[in-house]
Structures are given as structure tokens and as C-alpha cells.
Amino acid sequence: MQRVLWLEGGEIYRSGPTAAILGEYEAALGCGQRNQNQRSTGTRTKARFVRWQIDGTESGSSNFLTTMGAVTIRVQVEALAAIRNGLHGAALFNGERQLMWGWAKENVQLDPGLHEFYYTFPTLPLRPGPYSWQVSLWENGKVLDMWDCVPDMIIATEGTNTPG
Q: Rounded distance, CA 28 to CA 80, Å?
């Protein structure tokens, strides 16, 4: 098993398995939350994605998946104005930017305020490594916001590798 050290201010802050420490480090950097400097496509006048996380992670890191059981992904969007006739899409890409899963919902109706979209899977049987979520919100054929969620989702489950 490979191990790494996370240094903070010249001191060892954490040490452990590479995937676990990498996931903690990326979560600490991004906290699954969008900052003001991150770019997106769209006008951002009516809506803006602000946060994503994996619910109920055992690792305590909101972007780190270590179990093969049921998993729920939660994405938060802030509607700055009422959205009618909306379309919400979500996609999951592997590290090579190959589409692994996609979903869309039509006729989305949102009042101003914070809203959450949930995607629940009985399992995510993916090979260990980084994966990225992309979410979008459209209204009447125009993109309101499109976000490549950060940090990446880190899969660190055992038993998902198949013999070569």
C-alpha cells in the first residue's frame, strides 16, 4: 500500500494511504464549494450552482467515496429569480473525460432561493480514481449556469478492479 505525507507549515499534518490523504487534501482546498473566481458558462443572472457533496461519507470528506453501497450526491443551486420551464442536467465523467452517467429533468420550476438536487445510486461501481461532476441549468433553451463541480469526486473503494 502506498502512503503519503501532507505537510502544512513545515509539519506533518496527515499521513496515510495515498487515496485517502489526496481526497482530504482536495476537499480542504475546494470544500466542494464554488468560489467567486471559478468560471462557468451562462449569464448567472438568474441562477448559480454553489456547492456539491456526497451525503453520509464515512471518511468525513464530502468528495471522497470509500464504500460500495448506496450513495447520494447533492448539488445546491441558488435561484436569483423565478425559473419556469427549466431543464436541469447532470453528468459524471471519469479522469479521461469519458461520460460515465448522465441525467436530465425537464419542466424544472424554482422560486428564488437555495434549492438542492439529489442523485441517488444503489451503488457506484467505478474504478478507484478521480471523477468529475458537471451540472447545468437551462431555461427556455438558454443556459443559466453550467458548473464543473470542484473538487473532483475521489473513488477509493476496494474490489472494483477487475483482473487484467
A: 28
Q: Retrieve residue 164's grid coordinates.
A: 487484467
- Residue 152 · residue 132 · CB < 8 Å: yes
CA distance 134 to 131: 10
Distance separating alpha carbons of residues 9 and 155, to the nearest angstrom: 28
Residues in CB range of 13: below 8 A, 6 or more apart? 6, 7
DSSP state of 152: P
Q: What is the pLDDT of residues 12-46, one digit of tens each?
A: 767 777 777 776 666 555 444 444 434 444 444 79
User: What pTM did the predictor assign?
Assistant: 0.71
- Strand bridging mode 153-155 / 64-65: parallel
Q: What is the residue extent of each domain of the chain?
A: 33-155
Q: Coil, strand, or helix at residue 115?
A: strand
Q: Which fold has domain 33-155?
A: Coagulation Factor XIII; Chain A, domain 1 (2.70.50)
d(C-alpha 67, C-alpha 101), whole Å = 19
